[in-house]
């Protein structure tokens, strides 16, 4: 047995060794307290502190944090960024629609301006002709400038006056609207008789 124990003693390296053996520790720097001092230890601490500070800043920016660990903070931030990207896409689509509708409005206004010029160019004047057909029935021919909503206002006003349109024909050409219609005017004629 002595033979085995003496062989084991030869393999053991004492603690006070130079550190150049196979099992020895590499030489390093030791601080005043005798603890091993790594040259990258402070850099690693700074890196971790910087990462921790950035995670705290990210947590402060993201409105919904489900858990306080690092992985959840990053997942919540990714979800929040995706929501923001969806909002940006939705709002940019709305802006494009608004731009398209404003271009249509500008085009419609230009058409209205052009319609007035066309009427003057072709010598078309606004006019109203009324012919009595039979008792309460009238035939009306109206020429007016082509503008948005003008025909609707004309119909509303005629209905307000008590005129009932039976056969109506609407034609637009050269910047003008031609409305010809057969009208029953029961209440309107009574209204006119009261005025006279």
Automatic annotation (TrEMBL):
GO cellular component entries: nucleus
Main location: nucleus
Residue stretches in coiled coil: 74-101
Superkingdom of origin organism: Eukaryota
Cell compartments where the protein resides: Nucleus
Matches recorded under InterPro entries: bHLH_dom (IPR011598), HLH_DNA-bd_sf (IPR036638), TF_AMS/ICE1/BHLH6-like (IPR051358)
Keywords attached to this entry: Coiled coil, Nucleus, Transcription, Transcription regulation
One family name in Pfam for this protein: HLH
Presence of the UniProt keyword Magnesium in the record: no
Positions of the BHLH domain: 35-84
Any one GO MF annotation of this record: sequence-specific DNA binding
SUPFAM superfamilies assigned: HLH, helix-loop-helix DNA-binding domain (SSF47459)
PANTHER family: TRANSCRIPTION FACTOR DYT1 (PTHR31945:SF20), TRANSCRIPTION FACTOR SCREAM2-RELATED (PTHR31945)
Protein name: BHLH domain-containing protein
Species of origin: Jatropha curcas (Barbados nut)
